[in-house]
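Researcher: Here's a chain I'd like modeled. Treat it as a single chain, no partners, no ligands.
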Amino acid sequence: MSMRPKGLPPVPEQTAAVARAAFPKGTLAIRVRDRLAEVFADEPFAEAFGVRGAPGLSPGALSLVTVLQFAENLTDRQAAAMAIRAIDWKYALGMELADTGFDHSVLPRFRTRLAEHGLERTVFDRLLEHCKEAGLVAAGGRQRTDATHVISAVRDLNRTELAGQSVRAALEALAVATPAWLAEAVDIAEFAHRYGERINGWTMPTSKTKRERLAQVFGQDALTLCRAAWADATPPWIREIEAVQLLRQVLVQTYYIHTDNRGREVVRKREADTDGVPPGSIRLASPYDADARWAAKGEELFWLGYKVHLTESCHTPPEAEAEAEAEARDRDREGRGEEDGGLLPPNLITDVMTTHAAVPDVQATAPIQQRLREHGLPSGEHYLDSGYPSADLIHAAAKLGTEMVTPALLDHSRQARAAEGFDKSAFSIDWKARQARCPAGRTSSNWNPVQQHRRDAIVVTFAATTCGSCPLRDRCTTSRQGRRMLTLRPRELHETLAAARAEQQTDAYKARYRLRAGVEGTINQALDVTGMRRARYRGLPKVRLQHAFSATAINVVRLDAYWSGHPLDRTRSSRLTRLSYQLAG
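Model: Modeled as a single isolated chain. Structure tokens:
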């Protein structure tokens, strides 16, 4: 299939006339076509299509369909049907009224091409660039980031189910790819009896002994299949099949193979205490989605899937924003509205980042800020919650002109947690003399630069003789060595962290930090409008594509509200509170 770059075709006269008559005030699809047609061009998708073969559907038009699909939270079949029967969609796509549209199977093939060529953010980035040129987003402003969990599109499996289902997935793939080889490698009748239907925990034996025996059988079958696939006489391409590779990983992660006292080979499930299990960041959870991971947040939230980080522009503190919105509505009623410049620019999503669920928030901070700089939209103030910062990140962002307004990690020493005794802030540090002075006025004896968790640190130690005779020793340390030890970061990072911890205790900081809460409303809007919390597809590339188009759809919805003169409420303040601001003005 090839591409002939042409972009969105002109709107036929008859389609335009009927659409204008049916929707005199316009619709989201009509306004998107009128104002954003240049965003949905074909040229950016050229690398995903060949130059020979029958011409396919316009990728620009398909990307517009996908954005509208997410804006209305439709399935592929529903989106294809809308392109046939909805007049405003026909207007947006430049279709004749009698056009029969396209088959819904075109959309998943289009998404696959985008994911395979790394083009999942193309439309999002083009819309963001358009908004930047229109002055709706700019560098140096305020931006805020938050994350939410995303549930995968695959079934939750326990370890025994995972082992059996992995064998079944590999057998199904091999039965299609190389049935003759599979018939020689295993007993087809026996394996068909065991794996003909999906492995389900509800139909497993209730006896613990029988369940353990079944898990052992799954492990033995997995080992048999893997040894056959990796045999010298086996064609190499067989072990390149994804399901076979995943089966091998599941075998290694779930089972322990050893020889007993009689010289027999034994396959048994791994136990965390004796055999060790891989960390959650690399542990497979399903043979059908190699990127989904288990993760937990607190004691109540435990999920399999992904995590999405949304960053949006924000303009004013909540109280001022509510007051400005009330004034804008007054101007709108007086007939000035948007022409008078009264409406505040919409808060637009400026970055969307998707990771597997086990990636901590702090690892997303630097990539988010880097992408914002690459798009010419570095934030002057970046509002984040306590999961995103570290001393290194706060310091590095400040050097690049971005102030991270975020609760810095607190001192987790025993004294700080108990709120009694002397924590690190009670010690004065003489960086030139390379010494620390305790509250009793005594100085440290050792100053040792070290590497901890791949980061530079300094371990400061007081002599046992110094601490032994100190009258404040019981409030300072309870170590068996009888001496106090401090772990510090390098000077610049230590001072940055100390300043951040001191500032976040002030009332001014607390009032300022309230602006971050607004991003939770954006996440709720994304969940309600696009269903972002549930992955529609399998695999990280396609889930990233889903979230990129979801973020694009949210921006389109907000732009449409801005164009129509009815901006969405962006604060949590009640109507009564906004009325009080209006009357006070």
